[in-house]
Amino acid sequence: MLNLNRRQAISLFGATAGGLVLPGYLRAQGARPSVTVAVQKITINNTLDPWREQSNVGERVLYPNLWEGLILRDWMGDQGPVPGLATEWHRIDDKTLELKLRKGVKFHNGDEMTAEDVAFSFSPERVFGDTQPAGGQTIYSENYTPETAKDIPASLPGVGRRKWPALAGVEIVDRYTVRFHNATPDVTMEGRLYAGGSQILNRRAWDEAATYNEWATRPITTGPYFVEDHRPDVSLTYRAFDDYWGGRPPLERITFVEVPEVSSRVNGLLSGEYDFACDLPPDQIGGVMNAPGFEVQSSTIWNHRVSCFNTEHPVLADPLVRRAMTHSIDRDAIVAALWGGMTKVPAGLQFESFRSSDMFIEGWTAPEYNPELARGLLKQANYKGDPIPFRLLNNYYINQVSNGQIMVEMWKQVGLNVEIEMKENWGQILDASTTRGIRDWSASNTINDPITPMVVQFGPNGSIQQYKEWTNVELNELSQVMETSTDHAKRKKAIARMLEIAEREDPAYQMLHQNAVFTGMRSELNWKAAPAFAMDFRGPNWATNDG
Question: Is the pLDDT confidence value at 29 over 80?
Fold first, then answer.
């Protein structure tokens, strides 16, 4: 967690005056307050399905206010597992996990959650299609064509096997007991249950929906808030679900409003139109904190910013060119210039939390900034200055455009000809009908094991391979070790080798920096930001809860 006080923010970034206005949440009708949250983007796919909305912005609106799993992530703590819709769990063997369900949990339609809902939430009809419980083979969306409007989208079976490569099925033992059966051993089964995607839906609501999209825009879940209104690309409103098993929610409504421009989010916050403004860049912090009655909640999070390479591009097909690109970037200078030192360059695609399970590779670092080495590698590659496209979104990530422009200049200094191509959405970024080169991305730790993000995002069913941007035979074989071995030493050796492959020998990506989130808000709300994209509006994180 970053400790940033008002004086530090003002001295770093300057300040702008702001007037005292009526708090937006006091305008709410009824006994409980309502809040409005200005965000850069609500969702990417315009659905609220956790299997489909695998994004940073999706995490913010989906968890923990709407969707819940059998095991929950401790959003306000160490991000580890805590009881959720299951009260207890234990291993029967290396392939089998048994869980006892919490009794009396109600869905938003009044149904009680039972083992039937849990089993269906992990069924072929819901997510896996006809895929088999065996890892190692990449599943492409073109292999699946929905035959009816009720069928799941073509991308879901691949996402399902990304998250659960070897899940053979969920057995209903009795009304409140289930067993997860894997086809192979997996030391991370418990972790997979609190990662995004493994949340529980209401079977009846799914069956009654006329189409998948009808269900996915207003899913029936067990969370403290339900979907009252959903206007894709405009707004999303949740309303309190008073039969929530965890107690009466503290807010009447939560409305997320899509406000793409940073200045509009900040001005709306200071004028009282919004109660929260998300995704603030560091240079806006001082202005918000200097305005009377406002503060900025800030935290580094379990997410790293990276740039990904498309090896189908004729220039990037040569690993020497990709290696040169990784050594051309002065990451420390970028962190200092764009982030005021409020984040850091991590030890490659690793998180400090890996130390708790002795899976952190000591001594590993991001590729060194070495322009001379980069020039030498380009000379070996016989690079002639051919252009390399760099597809860029308009600040989907904080400081994305500025960061991209700085990197292009750094690449230019060693002789690389990288050309920015501004795109409007992720569909255009990933479009394979035209020549792809470099793109921005981020990688999250969701299981507290190196399997995320390395295997989940860069392994056989990671999206970088599903989109045919990069693949590596040895890394895919090592992914199988990470997914199926119970030998700690063998797994640690495997992840060390995977770092060497993906960051040094045959780069799939280049590391940039650890991500950080900055959220402007009214000080009197007494709300705290989680060390994640998610925003927790449950009772324990809201001091005005009236019980």
Answer: no
Name the DSSP class of 526.
-
Q: Cα(405)–Cα(370) distance, rounded to whole angstroms?
A: 19
pLDDT of residue 80: 83
Half-sphere exposure of 207 (CA within 13 A, CB side): 6
**Alpha-carbon Rg of the chain, whole angstroms?**
23
Helix (H) or strand (E) holding 181: strand 177-182
Tell me the one-letter amino acid at 497: R
Q: For residue range 343-399, what is the model confidence (pLDDT) as tens digits?
A: 999 999 999 999 989 999 999 999 999 999 999 999 999 999 999 999 999 989 999
Looking at the predicted structure, is the pLDDT value of residue 17 above 60? no
Q: What is the pLDDT of residue 7?
A: 37
Rounded Cα distance between 85 and 105, Å, is: 8
Alpha-carbon distance of 68 to 198, in angstroms, equals 8
Question: d(Cα 78, Cα 3) in Å, to the nearest integer?
Answer: 17
Task: Read off the pLDDT of each residue in 141-164 and give the average, rounded to a whole number.
Answer: 95
CA distances in angstroms from 472 to 399, 476, 482, listed in the order given:
31, 6, 15
Residues facing 303 on adjacent strands? 444
Domain locations in the chain as residue ranges: 34-258, 302-516
The SS3 assignment for 27 reads: helix
Element holding 9 (H helix, E strand): helix 6-13
Hey, how many other C-beta atoms are within 10 angstroms of the C-beta on 229? 13
Contact assessment for residue 295 and residue 528, using Cβ atoms and an 8 Å cutoff: no
DSSP 318: S
Same fold, 34-258 and 302-516: no
Q: How would you class 470 by CB atoms within 10 Å of its CB: exposed for 0-12, middle for 13-18, buried for 19 or more?
A: buried
Helix H or strand E encompassing 412: helix 400-413
The topology under which CATH files domain 34-258 is: D-Maltodextrin-Binding Protein; domain 2 (3.40.190)
Domain 302-516 has CATH 1.10.10.10: no
Cis geometry, peptide bond prior to residue 64 (ω within 30 degrees of 0): yes
- Hey, is 147 helix, strand or coil? coil
**Residue 215's pLDDT band (cuts 50, 70, 90):** very high
pLDDT at site 136: 84
CA dist 129 → 124, 141, 498, 527 (Å): 4, 11, 30, 41
Handedness of CA 439, 444, 449, 451 (dihedral sign): negative
